[in-house]
Structures are given as C-alpha cells and as structure tokens.
User: Fold this.
Amino acid sequence: MGLVRLVVIGFIVLTVIYFCLSLYSRAVRRAKLKAQWDDEGMTGDQDAFVTHGLEEYDNSLRRKLILGVYIVPVCFVAILIYVINFM
Assistant:
C-alpha cells in the first residue's frame, strides 16, 4: 500500500513541477522572441512573429527534455529501492 501511495503522490508532485517548469520555459521563450523583435528592429506583426516562434518551440528538443521531470526521479527512486533491498 505504501508503494501505491508513493506512486500517486509522486505523480501529482511531478505533474505540478512539470506544468510550472513548462509555463516558465514558455514565458522565457516568449520574452526572448519579443526582445529579438525589438533588438533587430523588425517591422510587421509582432504577435505573428512570437506565435510562429512559439510554434517552433513546441516542436523543439527543449520542450521534450522537460519530460525528464518524470523520467529522472522515477529512475532514481527505482535504483535507490534496488540498492537498498538487494545490495
């Protein structure tokens, strides 16, 4: 029963961390795109430029690496349990 509780609580905590990290990363990317727009003195629609940049970000490797929030702690806990019980 303890393992089930660990898994459920761990999943909830990791999900909250994932969403916070994802929102933060997206906000940073948005700010960088707006700064790039201002620094380069571009003309046209800034919102379209930012939207296009965020669409590219959604398909980027950095976005997928945030999923490591789930993978790394689960692997660490699995290794820790194995080492404690079988070594």
